[in-house]
Each structure stands twice: as C-alpha cells, then as structure tokens.
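Work package 3, deliverable 3.1, input record:
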Amino acid sequence: MRWSLACPSLLLFAGSLGGGIAPAQTRAQTKPEAKHTIAVTQYEITGVVVSGIDGSPVPHCRLTPNLVVHGGSGSRRFPASSDGSEVDDHGRFSISLPSAGAWNLRASARGYVTQSYEEHGAFSSSVIFSSSVVLTADSPTIDLRFTLSPEASIKGIVLDEAGEPVRDAQISLFLVPPPSPGGPPSSGTRGNARTDDRGMYELANLAPGGYRLSVRAHPWYAEATQQSGPSVPDGSPLDPSLDVAYPPTWFPGGSDVATAETIVLHAGDTRQADFHLVPIPAIHLKIAPPAGAVGAVNGRQGQAFPIVEEITPGANGPRAVSVATRRDPQGEFDVGGLTPGLYQVRTPGQEGRSTMVEVTANSVGTLNLDAPGSDIARVTVHVDGFAGDTEESGDRRGRGLRVSLIDTDTQRGTFSSVGDEGGFAGRRGSRTPATDRTIEVPPGRYEVVLQGVPNLYLTGITAKGAEASGRYVTVPAGETTLTVHVANGRANVSGVATLDGRPAVGAMALLVPTTIEEPDSIGFLRQDQTNTDGSFDIENVIPGQYILVVIDRGWQINWGDRSTLRRYLTQGIPLELKPSASVKQNVIAQAP
Amino acid sequence: MVLVCALWGGEARCPAQIGGAAGVGTSIASSSTPDLVSGRVINAATDQPVRRALVRLNTRAVLTDSEGRFRFEQNKESSANILVTKPGFYATAEYGDAGNLYLQSAQLAALLELRIYPEALLTGVVLAPDGTPLPEIWVTAMRRAYDDMGRRWVPADQRQTDSHGGFRIPVPAGEYRLQTRYSPRNSAIGEAVLPVAVPSGGASNTSQLIRIHSGEEQTFELRPVVSAIHTVGVSQSPPDRGFLRISARASNGGTVQVNSMPASGDETKIQLPQGTYTLTVRTVGDTDGSELAETTVTVPDHDISGVVLRFSPVPSIPVELLIDSSSSDTSSTGLAQLGLNLQSEQADSDGGFASIGLSPRANQTFFFSAPPGSYRLVGRNSGAWYIKSASYGDSDLLEQELVVAPGASGIPIRVVVSNQTAALQGTVHLNSDPVASWVYLIPNRRSAQLVYSTRSSSTGSYSFDHLPPGSYQAIAFQRRHSVDYRDPESLTPFGDRAQAVTVNVGDKPTLNLDAVPATEVIP
C-alpha cells in the first residue's frame, strides 16, 4: 500500500505519480463481511519489534493499529481505539483487533523512527510505501517481525558573517530519494526547524536516506528586518552596509541547489551541519502602482501596497518574505530586502493583478502590474473534454478541475491556474470548470498535471506558440495557449503476488506503460507495495497499454539505469486497461 | 511613508512602533546642533562594551565597532530618538517600554553611554513521571506586569520542547511563572500530558515567583502528570445548550480546556485524562443572563457518564455612583471613566489574574457579572475626581476584598467620588542636575488606585494636580520602574531617596526628589 505524505506541498507530486488525485488509495483486499461465517473470531496481530541495526528487541515501543478503509475517492484510516499497545521487555506484542481488514500498524519508540510495517519511506518524497497487515476470517491471526530503524538526526548552528548566532533562521530539510524505476525522483521537504537563541537547531527522528538542507534567514540589523521608525517621506538614503539580505543558503554554503551536498544518513547517525551566512546587497524591486489604485482603494491610502511573495522550490505556493516597502512621491513602490529569485507580486483586493517576476542581482527597471513583464510566459489553458458538474465523478465537493504546471526538471515550483483572487488557486474553490485560465510561469519545460477531479485523465496536449510532447510542454516568454485534452474513466489494477507459492510480502509492484521510454508518453509508471497477504492495488490509472511486474525486495535494487527496468519487463504481464476498467491480475513475483 | 512588516514562516511580526511611548520633554532652547553624535554601547550587567549593536538615531543607523563605539557624523538632528538593538539584549527590561531615549541637542553633544540589558534565560526540561522526555509540549513564560491599576500576568513568550524535552525561553529580566499547555496526546508516550506550572497553580504568594535577572539563566525540571484520556458523559440541567467549552481545573491548579463532542442521546461527551477536576462552564446570554455551572468529577481508568452540569445565573452586582457631599463642582464624572474592575488572584485558565470589567445595561447603569469568589476592587482617577470610598454591604472595598457569594444579586457596590483633591509639585535631580525621570507616589492608606505616577520634564519639574488628600511615599527613578508598590519591600533598596509627604485639600506643596539612577537598578 502507499500513502501520500500529509504535507500539502507534496500532494501535487503525489498527484503526478498517482495519476492526478491528491490522496492515495488502498483497498482492503478482503472484505470484513466474511465474519458472518464464523460466530466468534479473535483477530490478533502478534510479533516482535526489533532494531534495524542488530535485530535486538526494541523496548518501550508503542504500536498503533488503524483500519484502512476504502471509500469514495480515497481511503481513510480509522483508529482501532484511542490507545495503542505497548511491547513487553523482549519487544513482543499482541494486539487484539475488533474486525478483519487491512490494518496499518505503526510503531513508535524513543530513539527510533516512527514507521509503519515494512515502510519504505525514503524512496519517494511524496508517498510512503508500507505493507498493510491483512486479517481475514480464514487467517485471523498473524505473527510479524517488525523492524524499526534507529532514528538519525541532523543538528547544527547557524552563524552570521561576524560569527554570531542567527536566531529564528528557518531550516528546511529535503529528502533526496534514490533513483526510482519511474525515472528521476522529485525532492520534497521532510522537515523544518527554527534556530534558537544560540543559533542552534535540530532535526530529529529522521529515517535513513539522503537529505539536503537549506536555511533562510534575514540579517537582524538589515533595514527590511528592523522597523524603520516613523514615516520617511523623502526616503533617506540607506547605509549600503545595512541594506543587505541573506540569499537562501544550501548546506554547505551555496545559494544554488545544484551546489547542495546530499547528506547520507544511516540508521542511528547524527550529523552536524553548520551554516555560515554571508549577506549580499539587497535587491530593490520598483513597482508602478496599478492604474486606478493610486492612493484610493476603498478610499483609504496605503491599501494598495503590493504583496511580494517568494516562489520557493518544494513549497506549496508562494511564501511571504521580509521586505521593506517604501513609496516615493510619484507613488512608485520600492520593495527592498530581496535576494535573487522568483517572486509573485500582487495587489490586495485587486482581481487578477498578479504577476511573476524574476529578480536578479542587477535587476533594473520598473515592474508594471498592468503590463506583465516580457520575460514571463503567460499560458492560457483551455480544457477540452471536461463536462464539469454533469459528470458523476466530478465536483461533488464543489471542487473543480485544476491544471498545474510543474517544473519537474529543476523543481523550481508548481504553478496552478490562477484563481479569482489573483493568487494560487486552491484557496478559493472555483465552482466553474477550469477553462481558459491563465498561468504565469518562467519560460521552460513543465509537466502538465490535472487535479481536483479524480476520475479525469489527460489524453493529450496541443499548444499554440509552445511545444507540447506527451505530458510535457515547453513554453517561451510571452503569450501561449495550451489545450489540455481530457477524458473520463481511470482504471484500477489489483491482484495478489506470490513467490514460491506463498504471498510475496512487501514486494514492489510496478505498472509500467509500454510507452515509458517514448518522450510523448502520456502514461507514467505507477507503483505500490504488497501487503502481508501479497495483495496490491493500483488505482486511478490512465487507460492504456501496461506491463505489470512485481519484484521481491525491489527496494534494494539500484534503479539508476533504465536498462534495469527493461530486464524485469521482459518477464512482466502485459495488460490493456480500457477506460474505467477494474482488472484483477495475480502475479508471480520476480527475484531481484 | 514606510511600511515594514516582517512576515516570516507565516508568523506575522510587526515590531513595535518607535516613538509611540510618551516622551513629552519640554525642549531646552538649544543653541547648536552637535555635528557629531557618538558614544558607546555597554552591557548593563557586565559593564563591557557591546560590539555590533545597532544604534538608531532617528532614521539613521550604524553598528558599533569592536569596542562598542558608534559615530554619527554630519548630524543634522537637534533632538533625536535613540534606540539600541542587539539580539540577546533589551534596550530596557521594563514591560511595555521599547527603550527609546529622547535626547535634546545638549545631551546629544555629550559622549553617550547607552546601556542595554542582556536577556534572561528560562531553560529546562519537561519529563513524564518516569523520566521520559516529553517533546512538542508548549511551555509559556508568563510575566508579572505592574501598573497604576495593579498587577497582571502577560505572556512573554512560548516555545515547544525539543526531542529531548528541552526548552529555552529568552525573556527580559522580571518576575515569571512557567506553565505547560495541555497536550491531549503526546507523540512520545501516546497519552495526555496535563498542564503543570512553576510556581504551582494555587500559589499567589509573590515570594514564590520566578525572579530572574539580566544575563541570568534559571533551569527548571517540569514533571507534568501523564494519563490516558477517557470519555466523560455530561448532561445539562436545564438541557439544550449544545456545544460546550468546559474548563477542567485539576487539583494542582492546572486547567484543561475541553470541547464537547457531538452529543449522542441526552449526553454530551468530553474527553479528560484520569484525575479529579472542577468543571466550570459559563454561557454568555444575550444581555446579563450569563449562566454558570460548576461541578467536581473524578475520572477513573475507564469511560464514565452521568455527570450533571446544573446551571445557575452568574451573580450580577449593580454599581452605583455617589458624589461626596463636600464636592464643589456640578459637572461630575461617569462610572465608565473610573476604570473600575474586579481583580481575582485565583489563577484563571491562563494562570493569570482574572479581571472583570463593568458591564453596561441599556439604561445607562452598570454591573459586575462576577462568579462567586473573592475580588479586589480597583479604579483610577478621572480628571479631578477620585474614588473616596467604595462599599458593598458592610464591607469597605478599599480595605477589604469583595466576597461574592453564590446566588448573590441585587446588593449594590456604592462608589463615592470626590473632587476635593490636593496637589504636589517639585523638581527631580540626579547628581545635582535636573533630570527627566519617573515620579511615583504610593498612598499610605489603601486606595482604589494603587500608585500615582508621572514624568518629570527634561528640566526636572513634575506636577500632580489631582491627588486624593493623604500621606504618600514619593520616589523618582531615572528610568521607568514598575514594581508592586503595595509591597513595602519595593522601596527598601532606595530608602534614602524615598520621601514621606502629606497633602491636604487645596494645597500644592513642593517636594524635590533625588532620582535613583538607571545604573543602580539592574533588572
């Protein structure tokens, strides 16, 4: 089974992997109604929790079972009771459960990573694979060996250019997953921390894996951080040594993610990662006020101050930055305290007055909110084939279709169709189908991802003024139009994997489009992990031609080379998935 | 115009506006504007220079050098607002004071010595009874703040414990109480962590407060009770109040706020850890129909039901204003101008002091809606009017506490005001020079207003125009000095500078004072 991480920023990526819907699904392979055949059945999970390093029992471990129930467009977990169960001194546990079903079993112990059974958490930044414990009337009990990984941690200190501690610096931790069978994996945040009065931070309870760290902070003495006293109508000149900012800094010290070191953590590791921040001259962005907004929005001056937000990689939308905004006598705004990067500028209360701006070290000129910059791509998105509210599956919760452009190559950001507010969509659920919306992005190559209507899928893209290929589109600066062709009826594939006549537990199930190596492929690789009864379930698949393979211990394979996958595909089972098909297919697991 | 708003990690932090504090010094007729403003920034606790401190002179700013020195050349300001900032330091440890200095040209011309105060640190660890460190527990530092009306608790800062249960809360020097927030399900132990406080909840004795000085670190080990939570079925009499917000006070004074869950049948369900609690629920009616229910419940190691909340009206105490017969004028004051409120020293849900203000009725009358308990009535002068006496039945509310009995209603509080006041004036000196300072008058007899304060001008002169006649202790401080002046010990360290004075109706005697210098008051 697989779970999306709760972090909303990652749901978009989960959507791209999972076929365009946010929550991932798991189906209880065996239905609970089997219980009527036996009058009283004791459902029970027993076992031992051991350390992933030496196999020694883990004492004081708590286990929490949650019933995984499939329903609607997603699955939910229901706690069995308010309490979990604690292991004995030898790491043994015995949990009585009220019913059959697929149970997610989660273990937490001090000094260990909190994990589900057979969890492979470091393999994707967006979803976590683990095995459900499946109990049925025929096999109401199971005995498990639950391996927990000792927690790793990263700690460090953030110092400024004078060697003094930086307080309230924001540390972001990004997972760098190993290569996956589906191609280059995406990175995503896995934690945050804030430095204390000593400049120190700690990121604890980390699973083994590769990580990158970035820090965001402001010089405490800088003009944008300090308040600037009473109004300064003449805008007294700033002392250049105080008009500085810290660029986003990746460990060990560069401002470019390409220079970031991947910190490899093994179980139980503690790594020190210190930062020495170096200020750069702050960049000022000049913004001409939108026409009609000068000094009189709702009759109150000052209402129309532009809001400048930074687009950060891995974040779920723009985030507020610390800026100092001045207004000169001509009404032009001067936004100080910026570092090079991509920003969204919008005017509060003004519909659609939003634009994207790339700020560089020698940015000059004035941003005009009425006339978007020539270096930004304005993409008008037209959706073809979406029937909106009339579809049975569509928009029951009042949520419409959302089209997002995801910069999967550089992971610079996720850009969604602009909502009513001029900000990122999603805040205000749009009741009308997302047709003819405009998305502003930096020029480049993007993956087109549909969200909001689970059953809908992409069938193709045609572009005017841009280049479309498969799920991808390359947009130049200026105006372009995309027509996104969609259809209804995603398919499901489920089955049981066996190895030597027994259930293959915790194996990697892959559903690979036959077109995977073609650049214009619409379909993409889907993945699941088998449960304790060997069952797997891959839902919401784009119809098409696929090859199904299940690989025992597939998590240990180095997927860095494309040819690795080819080797397994030759022994896979070809499947043709028609729209809305539900295919059951049992598989013999392959050896790794 | 300049708009600065630091938004960081979603948390809005708009720094206090400079220039907001009262600083009405009459300016000395200055002959010349100094071309150079310079000086040093000094750590007030160690007398060592502070490097890389930001000194702001109106809109200009500069960092101090390695010797703590700063220079503003080509100065054009004849008077200036000066503020020093540095992480780990406060420009003043006084609550509610940003620490701005307002200097005239003569003062700007001198070599400035700007003293800043290192922060104090409240650190420690939160542990379960078996010693398991408890992560993700919010620890709040509540600061005791004093003003003319009395004392109260204000939250200074709050931090979450780390994976080792540790916390560090930097605060200004002062008097504190540390408390943890209720956590219904802690990740480390899977159980509820009850609130705990230092000093413990019931304590109102000031000697038990955490007193911490600039540059000092005090470490605490907080051991909250942990317990599994259980469901408690609650029914209401009379029924149908729907959603309830209930505060459950444990025997140690810690309070758990719980929300009711959707009702099934006639009972509302709430979740509480094992233990004995006083449940308090208060409803707010449309007018003064507020109702209160209080009951005691003991939660065993399993779910229970059958707890009944019996609601009764909150006592409503009318307040009447009477003019003292000797008052001269016809135009009087109104009750609303007297800042009347009832202060309870029983720790409320936030561990602070509950304060109940006047509630108005439609017909221009006022009342206190006060749950049963003991309160102290406080108020302030309004223009020329002062509260001469206040009574509730036989109780003199200036000397005694107001005791509200359950079901008490109808008996009024009678407040007598008078405008037959005295006055006082004088000059404050420091080392024989007149100096701007804060002057405090502490009444010897209990009064509705606990202390009278004013600022002397930069020429040192001060004036109180309306004082209740009587005897006072008078003292001046160079910097604001807010403490509990009801405590006789508060003036002991400055004994020789405090002076006794008696003022009579219609008099305006002169009393000159020697200020306590800022260097003598290390917070």
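Chain A has five domains: 2-148, 153-280, 283-368, 377-488, 491-588.
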